[in-house]
Amino acid sequence: MSGQERDRRLAPPNRQRVSASRRSRRGLILGVVIAVAAALTACANPAGPTSPTSATGDAAASQHTQVVRKSASAMTAAEIDRFERAFSYAVHKGYFDAFNDEHFNHQRNRNHGAELTATAPIGAMAGESIAWEYRLLPWHRAFILEAEQMLRAALRERDRTEGRDPSEANSLFIPYWDATHEQALPDWVRAFQPQGGTALVPEGVPQGHPAYGKPVGSRYNIRFGRWPGNNIVFNKLPQPAQVSGILAHDDFPGFTQAIDLQATIVQSALPAAKQGLETLKRKFPGNADVQTIEAAESGPPQDINAAVKLVNAILGVGYLATTENARPHPDQELIAAVKAVYAAFIPPPHAVLHLWAGGLDPANPDVRGTVSYFNELAVDPVFWMLHTELDHWWYTWQQSHTGVPPLTGDDAQFQPLTPQEGAWYGGGHHYSLTQLTPTQDLPYRYAKPYRA
Questions:
Q1: Rounded distance, CA 415 to CA 431, Å?
Q2: How far is it, in rounded angstroms, from Cα 251 to Cα 254?
Q3: Region class of 439: left (phi > 0), else alpha (psi between -120 and 50), else beta
Q4: CA-CA to 327 of 20 to 30 Å: which in 134, 211, 230, 410?
């Protein structure tokens, strides 16, 4: 890869919010807000095609002998060493920069049903259509395939310079993080914190973040951060029973929305949540976030703009607890009230895995861990491991279900990296939906299916 190619950068993604009229036509694609509204206001009564392929690059799935992806905790010492040497080298050389940029380029990739902002308090933005949500799993499957190919190329490059056998790269795979069973990061993963790489400056980064004060769209050097579990309102990992419920969905839309959008009401926690809201109203009578949640007591929001506003209010209330907890003498009544509010629902696992793994900087709770910033997270191996775990769930679901993402036309086509970005490692492939969905045609399999 030439220096000129490495220096080629994407234009800053369009972070402008779409108009209210466009959003209202989309429908309530953030299904989570309905459940969250019910939980936090304690007033709802919840009831328990074939796609064309490109002329070149579509044979990516057959370019490598099928590998077996394992849990990070089940890897041998040699497999861990191989992965760490490849990953740290790729981060140091800046090979993940294009992956950062593409993950952040939502307008081109349409890879999330909802986006987390870099701001403090954290915020959420909805994707522009339900197709963005249905692209989440197949797009990231293609993204992981590109990353594995890149890491193998990086390891071969490193091995040649160090006089090692480059053929070892043929066995490299990205492991999955079995978070629900382990309820922690594996020790070797927790200790592995690669340094290097750059990212595009997003809007609204808080003071203390290395991108703070730099022009939006310019580049900054990533300062790696990870404080797993250090987030007072996102301090619990998903449980196996939650994933079993996700795997029980019969259709793909229900399956993927349970992973990414739909919260679960905890009926027994609703009375305490309402009391928590009363405490917050008393302590923060003029707080806009508390007022937004209070206003939702008349019923859940019925348009996407109000829904997103409510989600951001919920996240803002969580911020009251995280900042209070960092004070020398925190108000425990306030913290308990926020915890009671959050205890009324179980969030979908996708965001929780990001926010739990990244945590908050103990010295500055406005700064989150690297894996929770959409513009820089590719340099954290946990990002790849948590998304490989989501892919593991999907792979397991596919063994007993025939449903596929309801995508057609351009929405059923995936090219996470451009040919120019992937040229140096032989990547930048185009993937069709039909290429990504039959598990028997994939260049990998999992050592064992997900079992609760």
A1: 6
A2: 6
A3: alpha
A4: 211
Hunting for tokens 């919010």 — which residue is that? 17
**Residue of 428, 404, 424, 434 whose CA lies nearest to 415:** 428
**pLDDT tens track for 37-94:** 444 443 333 333 223 233 333 334 334 478 999 999 999 999 999 999 999 999 999 9
Q: Which residues of 418-438 are buried (b: 16+ CB within 10 A; e: fewer)?
A: beebbebbebbbbbbbebbbe
Single-letter residue type at 174: I
Residue 171: DSSP 8-state = G
Q: How many other C-beta atoms can be found within 10 angstroms of the C-beta atom of residue 91?
A: 23
- Domain boundaries, given as residue ranges, for the chain: 59-264+348-446
Query: Hey, what CATH class is 59-264+348-446 in?
Result: mainly alpha
User: Using CA atoms, how far apart are residues 39 and 267, in angstroms rounded to an integer?
Assistant: 8
Distance CA 30, CA 127 (A): 9
Tell me the per-residue pLDDT of 306-322, one tens digit each, with 9 for 90 and over.
878 888 999 999 999 99
Q: Of the candidates 256, 348, 259, which has an alpha carbon nearest to the alpha carbon of residue 39?
A: 348
- CA dihedral defined by 229, 92, 78, 393, rounded to 10 degrees? 50
Distances (CA, A) of 17 to 13, 42, 45, 213, 269: 12, 30, 32, 22, 35
d(CA 447, CA 70): 5
Phi-psi region of 299 (alpha: psi -120 to 50; beta: other; left: phi over 0): left
196: left (phi over 0), alpha (psi -120 to 50) or beta: left
Per-residue pLDDT tens over the stretch 250-284: 999 999 999 998 888 888 998 999 999 999 999 99
Contact 5, 310 (CB under 8 A): no
C-alpha to C-alpha distance for 19 and 398, rounded to whole angstroms: 37
Q: Are strands 345-346 and 114-116 parallel, antiparallel or unpaired?
A: unpaired
Q: What CA–CA distances, in Å, run from 178 to 134, 186, 206? A: 23, 9, 31
- Average pLDDT for residues 380-409, to the nearest whole number? 98
CA atoms of 400 and 163, how far apart (whole Å) = 46
The string of pLDDT tens digits covering residues 118-158 is 999 999 988 999 999 999 999 999 999 999 999 999 999 99
Q: Are 284 and 320 in contact (CB under 8 A)?
A: yes
Return the biggest CA–CA distance within the chain.
69
